[in-house]
Design goal:
Blueprint (H helix, E strand, L loop, with lengths): L8 E5 L4 H12 L3 E6 L2 H13 L4 E5 L5 H15 L4 E4 L15 H29 L2 E6 L12 H20 L5 E8 L5 H9 L4 H6 L9 H12 L10 E4 L7
Helix pairs in contact: 1-2, 1-8, 3-4, 4-5
The structure holds nicotinamide-adenine-dinucleotide (NAD).
Length: 253
């Protein structure tokens, strides 16, 4: 049986770890050829090997999505390798250092905004012209429940994720008649290396992070990948401008 993305070309940023890796593997299993982008080559190349070992087609491109020329080169490399971009998952992000609004440094604030917010804009800035040229495409950006409700100690992160939701809505409106759909996912707390770092070094406890989850556990990266797959696929043909919350009911309280 053909997969949901049979014959499609997908680009996944932050594909070397966590949600990006799980999603890249899922898209490949559904028939997409996947370009993995990350600024840490080891992780990205490992994801490529995992896809190839499972019988899929994937390549790696090194890129820091917060730098315009690198985001542009990442898109150009994808087109050079595969000829088009049908699906883009703009997912690379960092948590920054936990500190309240007063104690957050300018350096941390600028870095988090540069990667999580400007990086998503830069990816779309270079992906959309190719999608216009080829007559359509589908984009999913990674926001967060932190873009919908506040979390103490993460001012730049929360602001960046709220911004991603608004960038998503804006691009969805701008290209609605051009067969380009733009959505985002708002994951709850998902057990990935990012969350392990928050637990190990930033003073969060396992309890802090699971207590807020009415379902009583953290999510798995694969549970976000399912939502991204749906939004990227033609099954979501009438969904655009939508922030899809996948969070074990965290924001339902
Ligand atoms: P992760 O740290 O496991 O993976 C993030 C990946 O992005 C890493 O491979 C990293 O090298 C890459 N990356 C970071 N900055 C980059 C840059 N400038 N250019 C290119 N690659 C870069 O984290 P994760 O939990 O899988 O997070 C993925 C996305 O999901 C992030 O945007 C994060 O904010 C978001 N998110 C995570 C959670 C969670 O609970 N884990 C919840 C909501 C949203």
């Amino acid at each position: 049986m053909a997969g949901l993305l049979q014959g499609k070309i997908a680009l996944v940023t932050g594909g070397g770890s966590g949600i990006g890796r799980a999603t890249a593997l899922k898209l490949a299993r559904e028939g997409a050829k996947v370009m993995i982008a990350d600024y840490i080559p080891e992780g990205g190349e490992r994801t490529v090997r995992m896809i190839k070992e499972a019988g899929g087609d994937a390549s790696f491109v090194g890129a820091d999505v917060s730098i315009a020329r690198e985001a542009e080169a990442m898109v150009a490399e994808t087109i050079k390798r595969y000829g088009r971009i049908d699906c883009a998952f703009n997912n690379a992000g960092i948590e920054g250092k936990v500190a309240n609004t007063v104690d957050c440094t300018e350096e941390v604030f600028d870095r988090v905004i540069a990667i999580n917010l400007k990086g998503v804009w830069l990816c779309m800035k270079y992906e959309i012209p190719q999608m216009l040229k080829q007559g359509g495409g589908s984009i999913v950006n990674t926001a967060s429940i932190a873009g919908l409700v506040g979390f103490e100690g993460l001012p730049a992160y929360n602001a960046s994720k709220g911004g991603v939701i608004q960038l998503t809505r804006t691009a969805a409106l701008e290209f609605a008649t051009k067969k380009i759909r733009v959505n985002c996912v708002c994951p709850g707390v998902i057990r990935t290396p990012m969350v392990e770092r928050l637990l190990d070094t930033q003073g969060f406890s396992e309890q802090d992070l699971t207590l807020g989850e009415p379902v009583g556990r953290m999510g798995k990266p694969e549970e976000i990948a399912e939502g991204v797959l749906w939004l990227l696929s033609d099954a979501a043909s009438f969904a655009t401008g939508h922030p899809l919350v996948i969070d074990g009911a965290w924001v339902a309280r």
